[in-house]
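Dear colleague,

Thank you for sharing your sequence with our group. We've completed the structure prediction you requested, and as agreed, I am returning the results in plain text so they can be pasted directly into your records. Please verify that the sequence below matches your submission; if there's any discrepancy, let me know and we will rerun it promptly.
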Amino acid sequence: MILWKTCSFLLTILFFYAARRVNKKKPGMLLSPAILAPLGLIILLLLTDIPYQAYSEGTSVISEMMGVVTVAFAVPLYRNWSVLMTHRRMILLSLMTGSLIAIVAGVSTTMLLGLGKEAAISVIPRSITLPVAVSLSETIGGMPTMTAVFGMLTSFAGVFLAPAIIKRMRLRHPVSIGLMYGMGAHALGMVKSFERGELEGSSSTLAVIAGAIITVVWAFMLMPVIMTWMAV
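Please find the predicted structure tokens below.
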């Protein structure tokens, strides 16, 4: 058991390191480590017929380390707190609107595509950070694994489309850019926004935290309406 956990951990690090090397030689969102490393691991698990549960248990230490790393994002958030509070009304209104649109658009799309009730419920938390999204999905009757997939796809799409949206919408203010990254692509968006600047990263961090709370509130408020609509 200890040997398998060690191998799983080392394989994950190896795939990530290899993906970074590829991305340095050929930069681009489609060849980013966030896509190449998971894709390589999925192929490996399928070829070797290793259950995902076994792999997940072997790499649980990485998930635990992510929680520690996430705390570090609070430092730039604290440094720029006064600037962010200056725009608190705009930030709150933007996150409330973005969260509501994400929920309505997600549920509407899944229902129109005929993906079923479970998919419609599971897509509700797709635009918030995965730990909260998975927990919320389980609470409201969705499928956590499906929510994780929807969340990852949303994050990838958000990061991939963000540069074009910024250019097309002529976004210049760092707070607006950070909010868009945080609400539209959560964890990956937060990382990309820090590459643009500390204020963008701080705004994105605030969007991830506050956006998750707002989405939880919206979810419980809208569930009766959504359930009624799906029953029709």
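Summary note from our side: The chain has a mean pLDDT of 83.

Kind regards,
the structure core
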